[in-house]
Known about the structure:
Rossmann fold, binds magnesium ion, 19% strand, binds 1,4-dihydronicotinamide adenine dinucleotide, five-stranded mixed β-sheet, six-stranded parallel β-sheet, 2 domains, single chain, alpha/beta, 9 helices, binds ligand 2YC
Amino acid sequence: xxxLTPEDLENIKRQLQEADSAVRRVTGLDIKGVCKAxxxxxxxxxxxxxVPVTSGNGIIGNFSASxxxxxxxxxxxxxxxxxxxxxxxxxxxxxxxxxILMADDHTFLAHNLTNGKIANNQPCTGMIYAExxxxxxKADSRDVLVVGLxxxxxxxxxxxxxxxxxxxxxxxxxxxxxxxxxxxxITSFDPETxxxxxxxxxxTPCADTIPEAVLSEKCIISTPGIPCAISAELQQKxxxxxxxxxxxxxxxxxxxxxL
Length: 259
Ligand code: NAI
Ligand code: 2YC
Ligand code: MG
């Protein structure tokens, strides 16, 4: 189970600012603009209640504080409840939260109490990183390589197919690869016979999952995956446009999807 660590979340505001600059550079839009392109929504300054959850592996240091900083960065009012769990949920509603943000070890949700809409971090993350990849202004074709077809990668691949891109997919788990081929009609990518791509979307919990043979000069790698899918050396050697951030981009996608 791929859980964030407090170290992943250090200086989250700077990480988010740097990621926003990268998104603007590669797409011409900022993260808010990508969310508007995806969902047609803009922030109405809703109040967000962030509820720490102690189940399973428990509270992750910096997680609630990072969500607070992320939500404020996108212009929402927000507060972290004093209490966790059920008591925290009650406290959030009592204190006027219109949107609840909370996560256990398996599900990170955003629930809009006003319109009933609810979002899950995994598909929302897949969709926004896939959307960013699809908006790359310097792409040389509509061919996209997707590495990782799990809870984040599969919805991202589905979004790219829906947008009319030619998706070449790969997953170490052959069952998941075959499911994506049969359900989405993607083409299986064979690492043994690699080719170059200018658009790459990766969603795995492993390092070095993108072989050098698929990298073209100034290609985009849009990846929520932790740790990073390529080495700093390869990133430099091919002048890769890397869009990668541990929590904020996916959280923005959740929030704008339920407005
Ligand atoms: P998952 O376990 O559902 O899917 C990961 C997939 O990667 C699996 O199907 C696995 O077979 C595949 N995989 C592993 N190594 C591979 C390799 N070398 N080559 C090809 N495929 C390989 O995990 P999930 O939930 O989709 O998350 C993926 C990653 O995204 C995790 O690292 C998670 O922590 C991260 N994540 C990041 C977020 C963010 O905002 N940055 C938000 C949510 C998840
Ligand atoms: O501090 C808390 O409230 C904890 N219960 C939060 C647990 C989050 C677990 N999930 C993850 O670390 C990853 C994130 C990338 C978002 C989705 N899964
Ligand atoms: Mg993110």
